Amino acid sequence: MVDWWVQFIKALWILFPAYAANGFPPLAGGKRPLDFKKNFIDGKRILGDGKTIEGTLLGLTIGFLIGALETLVYPFLNAYAIEFNTYLPSMSLFIGLMISLGALTGDITASFVKRRFNLPRGANVPLLDQWNFIIGAVFFTIWFTEITPFMFVIMLLMTPIVHRLTNIVAYKTGLKTEPW
Ligand code: CTP
Ligand code: MG
User: Fold this and answer.
1) How far is 25 from 117, CA to CA, in rounded Å?
2) 12-32: per-residue pLDDT in tens?
3) In the chain, where are the structural domains located?
4) Whole-model pTM?
């Protein structure tokens, strides 16, 4: 039987820096587009105005800091996990950076794909919008820490729910004008 509770905790361990890297860019109020307003060979914007230098740097920084925090508490939390005959996937400054880089790369790649399909900035594409940064973070990190298929499935399943809940909270607290 899969120890789903343990897998859930391990998934969260990898998700926290990824959520930070993905959640903070909108707060940067970025004005400088990453693509310098340039068009791709199809005549459409490479990425669009929704991917900015400021947002990307803020996401990278906060994601890295959460990874650094996890690196700091790793020895204590892992010692606790070992008491329950399990362990946490390894974490380091490098792994935290890779999670953040991967999350942002996944998000930027999705914007590139959306622009190729002629979708304007902010167009909602269900699942692609919620999964892009998870897939990016996992792809960048799976070589350096433990990410089991079961952990990956948990990440994919819980992220749209977390996304929905944070949007409702952002709406109730006045951070956003619509609850989606
Ligand atoms: N943002 C940013 N830099 C990033 C990612 C996001 O500045 N690398 C900011 C932008 O202001 C963006 C907002 O966060 O509008 C929301 O991010 P997201 O939903 O990823 O972008 P969209 O505006 O929906 O654009 P796209 O259609 O390209 O996904
Ligand atoms: Mg969006």
Assistant:
1) 24
2) 999 999 999 999 999 999 999
3) 4-172
4) 0.95
